[in-house]
Amino acid sequence: MQTRSKSLSELLSLYLVTDLSPAGAGSALATVRAALDGGVTIVQLREKNAQLRQTLEEGRALRALCREYGVPFLVNDRADLALLLEADGVHVGQDDLPGLAARELLGPAAIVGVSAGTMEEAEWAVAQGADYLGVGPVYATMTKGDAGEPIGTSLISQIRARWPQLPLVGIGGIQSGNASAVVSAGADGVAVVSAITKQSDPQNAARELRRNVDAARNAR
Ligand code: TZP
Ligand code: MG
Question: Which Gene Ontology molecular function entries are recorded, alphabetically (predicted)?
Answer without folding.
Answer: magnesium ion binding; thiamine-phosphate diphosphorylase activity
